[in-house]
Structure formats: structure tokens, C-alpha cells
Specification:
single chain; alpha+beta; Alpha-Beta Plaits; ten-stranded mixed sheet; 10 strands; about 20% helix; about 30% strand
Length: about 260
């Protein structure tokens, strides 16, 4: 049996997890080590032809993923299980292909996605945790969880997020629909912020978190968030939170509903 035995649909869908610490983001860039760069090289070694993937979320440098989705046209008869084993043999544990499936023609990791869900982790203790240092922002100042939750509520709904987005190319839109924006206490001084939206503009989640943390510290009032949104001015919001606390948890399509992962 070869990697290409049998017949199947025409699009490969990969579910990919990665530690973004040592990557310069997902998207391929000349002279930079990126997740897309190492993934495409591995795919092309296995499939023996060029691959131009579509991706659900172009994560920034240092940002991690548990549920990134990548798609590309499938060669005839591709065996998903063998492809996963081959890729993980050369990429794991820094990049792991959690699942490979074949989809009908027309599926596209980016254009077919209905929503994305991100989680930001904060260690809120006087002393940092060496075992979470790569995956959480250490904030030693006490954060008021009630204030964080109140401040997070106004982001739900459709808004212009210019105040929370890094400027993009001319004509780039900044209106997004947010479905959930919540904080939870994971215990032992670890706080999680989760946000699920139709899509995100550059640095949107990290800018929101940086501003929310200012509210949690008592430096802003939770009621200021709606005014910051309406200002449509990046200078009105707070600082950008560090990238290493952020993970792309899940991408939703027609066959996926939000999980409690």
C-alpha cells in the first residue's frame, strides 16, 4: 500500500498544533523560520510536488496553536493516516499534525471557517512559574477578576476594532463580530481569557488583553471599553500583551461546534 492508494475527495484538511516560541509566525517569510515554512517543506518531501496551503489563522511570531487548520488540494488516492505519520515523524514535537481528513472540493481552511477561538493565559502570582513561562504572561500585580469580566463584556457583538488592530494595508477592514469574550479562573493564580469571533485583525486579541489587564489592575474603568471601541484610535487602547500567552484553540466550520476544550 502506498501513500496514494485508493480514491478520495480533492482537499486535504490538516489539524495542526505547534509551539510558536521559536518561529517567526505562521506565514512563510524569506529568510525567517516559520511554521508554514517547515510544514510545507515536510509536505513537499512526502508528497513530492509543490504545495500551496490555505490557513485558518496567520498567527504572529511567538503565538501558539492547538487547533490550527491548513488545507491544500489532495493528490489522487492520498492515505490520511500515512500522511499524518510521515509528517509527525519529521516535525514533532514542535509541530504536530493532530488529524488529517479529506474534504470535498471547495473546502478552504480560511474561507470556509465560520469562527476562530483563542485563549490567552496569565499567571497572576508574585513569583513566576518556570513551567508556564513559554505559554503564559506573568503579571505579578494583583488582578481583579470581577473587573476583568465586566471589561470583557462590551466586546461581544459587531464592532469596528480599529482601536485594537495594528494598521493593515489600505482598504483592510477592521469590523469583526465577537461571539464570546470571557475570563475564567483556572486555579493556582492562572487566569484564562477566551474570545471567539468570525475572524480577527492583526494583534487584535493581544491588544484587547493588554487593555483588559489595565482594567484588572485598576488603571482603567471597565466602562471605558465601549468608548475605546468607538474612538477607532489605536492610541486610545492599552499596550499589546506578549505573544507567548496566546494560543489558537479551535476553528469552527459547518461540522464543528464550540467545545469546552
Amino acid at each position: 500500500m502506498t501513500l496514494f492508494d485508493g480514491d478520495g475527495p480533492s482537499v486535504v484538511r490538516l489539524l495542526v498544533a505547534y509551539d510558536g516560541t521559536d518561529f517567526h509566525g505562521f506565514a512563510a517569510q524569506p529568510g525567517q523560520r516559520t511554521v508554514e515554512g517547515v510544514l510545507v517543506r515536510a509536505l513537499e518531501r512526502v508528497l513530492r510536488h509543490p504545495v500551496e496551503p490555505s490557513v485558518a489563522g496567520r498567527t504572529d511570531a511567538g503565538v501558539h496553536a492547538w487547533g490550527q487548520v491548513v488545507s491544500f488540494p489532495a493528490p489522487p488516492g492520498l492515505d490520511p493516516d500515512r500522511l499524518a505519520r510521515s509528517l509527525n515523524g519529521s516535525l514533532a514535537p514542535e509541530v504536530v499534525v493532530r488529524d488529517v481528513r479529506l474534504e470535498p472540493a471547495g473546502f478552504d481552511a480560511r474561507r470556509s471557517a465560520r469562527w476562530r477561538r483563542y485563549r490567552y493565559r496569565i499567571v497572576n502570582r508574585p513569583v513566576p512559574d518556570p513551567f508556564l513561562a513559554r505559554y503564559a504572561w506573568w503579571v505579578p500585580d494583583p488582578l481583579d477578576l470581577a473587573r476583568l469580566r465586566l471589561a470583557a463584556d462590551p466586546f461581544v457583538g459587531e464592532h469596528d476594532f480599529t482601536s485594537f488592530c495594528r494598521a493593515g494595508p489600505p482598504g483592510t477592514g477592521t469590523v469583526r463580530r465577537v461571539f464570546t469574550s470571557t475570563w475564567s479562573d483556572a486555579g493556582d493564580g492562572v487566569l484564562h481569557y477566551e474570545i471567539r469571533a468570525s475572524s480577527f485583525c492583526t494583534q487584535m486579541v493581544r491588544s484587547i488583553v493588554g487593555t483588559l489587564v489595565e482594567a484588572g489592575r485598576g488603571r482603567r474603568r471597565p466602562g471605558e471599553m465601549l468608548a475605546i471601541l468607538r474612538a477607532r484610535d489605536r492610541q486610545a487602547a492599552g499596550p499589546v500583551a506578549p505573544p507567548h500567552g496566546l494560543v489558537l484553540l479551535e476553528v469552527g466550520y459547518g461540522d464543528v461546534t464550540p467545545s469546552e476544550a
